[in-house]
Amino acid sequence: MSVLGLGRMGSALACALVKKGYDVTVWNRSADKQTPAGARRAGDLDEAFEADVVVTCLATYEVQRPLLSKNIKALVNLTSGTPEEARVTAEWARDNGVEYVDGVIMAVPQQIGTPGARIFFAGNEEHHVLDAFGEPVYVGQDAGLAALYDLGLLGVMWATFAGYLQAVALTGTEGVTPQQLTPMVADWLRELAEMLPEMGEETQHRDYETEVSALDINVSGLRMLAEASRRQGVDSALPQALHDLYQRAQQKGHGTHSIASVIEVIR
Ligand code: NDP
């Protein structure tokens, strides 16, 4: 087994393979990265390609592309990228007779090797190597699917974290501490998560009738959040962007509909 890339994640992957008893060879562009205990450093890429399986975990596909070779027998790609990049790599693998599994890691390096570390993977269903890293979740045959799920879920994460930080900054202007605020946000997020299945169904059936909360009231709430942020001396770019997005759905005639109708602007 070989691992290309000894960054934070690649090192964690190599360590997990060693722990599982694999014979592990590692390769990294720069010499300064430490060789994980129990692994062997390859003198060059060709030496790393002698392994039955090569796992790649590099910064981007762009830096990975020139390193790939048809001397690789089976490639397990765990470098993050776009669906298109994953599909192009799968095509390259097919054309060069290289077995290919495309995966994305939904965990931080410290979680690798624990059951909580989910690895979405697509294409080839053969995934025995991924077992060493955590919990493999097969998402389908199309090699671009793992990257698609990855970006979708990361989008939820980035939007949620930014919303939380906006709340910390806004309430912080009045002396509220993160310790006071955070338990409330955590409870709120649990409640919001329970609303997602219904919202998903609304987007599927394009039926946005609501007895709960109309878009009109939410647009006006977002206007208040943007205004309060400005008045309290906090950046208002995020609430303003959300206001403008929701308002576009309102202007399309969804004012009395549920928040799910914003999808009509997004897609
Ligand atoms: P790091 O920045 O820690 O490591 C980047 C790796 O890419 C290093 O091995 C680096 O080598 C290599 N690299 C960068 N540029 C080049 C180049 N031009 N040629 C050859 N090698 C190069 O990143 P991570 O380990 O954190 O991330 C690696 C992948 O894992 C990314 O795709 C990331 O999205 C994904 N990932 C990371 C997570 C995390 O929490 N860290 C979570 C989920 C996915 P060198 O040492 O020579 O610079």
Automatic annotation (TrEMBL):
The keyword Isomerase does not apply. The keyword Iron does not apply. Residues 2-102 form the 6-phosphogluconate dehydrogenase NADP-binding domain. The lineage of its organism: Bacteria, Bacillati, Actinomycetota, Actinomycetes, Pseudonocardiales. Residues 142-267 form the NADPH-dependent reductive aminase-like C-terminal domain. Belongs to the HIBADH-related family. Gene3D superfamilies: N-(1-d-carboxylethyl)-l-norvaline Dehydrogenase, domain 2, NAD(P)-binding Rossmann-like Domain. Pfam families: NAD_binding_2, RedAm-like_C. It comes from Lentzea guizhouensis. InterPro entries: 6-PGluconate_DH-like_C_sf, 6PGD_dom2, 6PGDH_NADP-bd, HIBADH-related, HIBADH-related_NP60_sf, NAD(P)-bd_dom_sf, RedAm-like_C. Keywords: Oxidoreductase. GO terms for molecular function: NADP binding; oxidoreductase activity. This is 3-hydroxyisobutyrate dehydrogenase.
